Amino acid sequence: MSNSNAEKITITCSGGCGRTVTLRKSKVQQADYYLCQSKISGQQCEANLPPLMPGKMRRVELNAAASFWGYTDIVPDAQMAASMLHAREILAAGLTKLAIEKAGRSS
């Protein structure tokens, strides 16, 4: 008979709130940081994540450890960097269009 406690690990929220979750190691997806996403302190925990280093991006995995989200800082490959640039261009164009429409309505 195996000892089920030996297979379990405890993940602590990286945001500093002190929340933890204990579960089987096989149920945890590897990440650099884990955040609790609680309604009470989730936003503050996210604000406490360290800033991204230049040239990196942050991948987010929902429910990486039960309800905790996993955050991993990675260096994007060329295709990923191009996709991010394209997405930023689309966002900028959309925001510009909204600003122009809003200015047209208020005049």
Any overview of this molecule?
The protein is of the alpha+beta class. The chain is 33% helix and 27% strand. The chain is built from two helices and five strands. The chain has helices at 42-47, 78-106, and strands at residues 8-12, 20-24, 33-35, 57-65, 68-74. The longest helix is centred in the C-terminal third of the chain and has 29 residues, at 78-106. The termini are far apart.
List keywords for this structure.
alpha+beta; three-stranded antiparallel β-sheet; 107 residues
Main sheet strand line-up: 3-5-4
Q: Roughly what is the average pLDDT, rounded to an integer? A: 91
**What composes the largest sheet?**
3 strands, antiparallel
Specify the number of helices: 2
Percent range for helical residues? 25-40%
- Span between N and C termini? 76 Å
Order of helices and strands: EEEHEEH
Uncertain spans? none
Radius of gyration: 19 Å
Strand content: 25-35%
Structural class: alpha+beta
What overall form do the CA principal axes indicate?
A: elongated
Total strand count, please?
Answer: 5
